[in-house]
Amino acid sequence: MRKAGLLIPVASLPSRFGIGDFGPRSYELVDLIKECGFKIWQILPLNPLGFGNSPYQSYSSKAMDEIYISLEILVEEGLLDEVKDFYPRAGKVDYAKVRAFKEPYLRKAFKNFKENEEYIKFIEQKWVREYAVFAALKKANGNQCWNQWPAEHKEWITNQKPLDEFEEEICYGMFLQYTLVHQWRKLRKYANSLGIETMGDVPIYVGIDSLDVWSYQTGFLLDSDGRPTFIAGVPPDGFSAEGQRWGNPIYDWDQQKKDGFSFWLDRLSYNAELYDIVRIDHFRAFDTYWKIPASCPTAIVGEWVEAPGYDLFDTLYAAYPNMNIIAEDLGDLRPQVLELRDHYHMMGMRIVQHSFDPVNEMPMDRENLCAYTGTHDNESLRVWYSHIDEPWKRKIRKFFKKHHFNNKLMSENMIEYTLKSRSKIAILPMVDLLNKNDSCRINFPGTVGDPNWQWKLKDYEEFKAKMPWIKTQIESSNR
Question: Catalytic site residues?
Answer without folding.
Answer: 281, 328, 377
